[in-house]
Amino acid sequence: MDTIHYSVRQDGMNSKKSVYILIGINTRGEKEILGFWLNILNEIGSRGVQDNLIISVDNLKEFSGAIKSKYPKSEIQKCIVHQIRNSIKYVASKDMKEFTKDLKQG
Q1: What would you measure as the largest C-alpha separation in the chain, in angstroms?
Q2: Where do the H-state alpha helices sit in 21-95?
Q3: Which of 35, 68, 92, 103 suits a disulfide with 40, CB 3.0-4.6 Å?
Q4: Coil, helix or strand for 31?
């Protein structure tokens, strides 16, 4: 589950819009956009999905609440990309090059 932010022009003014999507991995190992997350959480139950083992999200409060209400046993995991972004902001700029080099090797 993720959010994509767009700048759009509406009524002659620029504004920010968010699109909440749910991406899944099919049986061939390929990523697919399944749809908009709120609709999909409700819809996948009707497709026969009874539980999700792990759901990776960008830690928006709305995601976790919606997941827990529909699939209370699911493990919610913060996306590694978001974990790295949030960690990097605490690294001093003089140490950034070495830190990211180490991160790529790990």
Answers
A1: 52
A2: 37-46, 61-70, 80-88
A3: 35
A4: strand
pLDDT value of residue 31: 86
- pLDDT of 106 > 70? The answer is no
Backbone angles phi, psi at 80, to 5 degrees: -60, -35
- Note the pLDDT of residue 34: 77
Tokens representing 44 are 């996948």
- Helix, strand, or coil (residue 76): strand
Report pLDDT digits (tens) over 59-96. Answer: 677 778 888 888 888 888 887 777 788 788 898 999 98
- C-alpha distance from residue 11 to each of 8, 14, 15, 86, 100 (Å): 10, 8, 10, 35, 42
Across the strands, what pairs with 17? Answer: 6
| pTM given for the model | 0.52
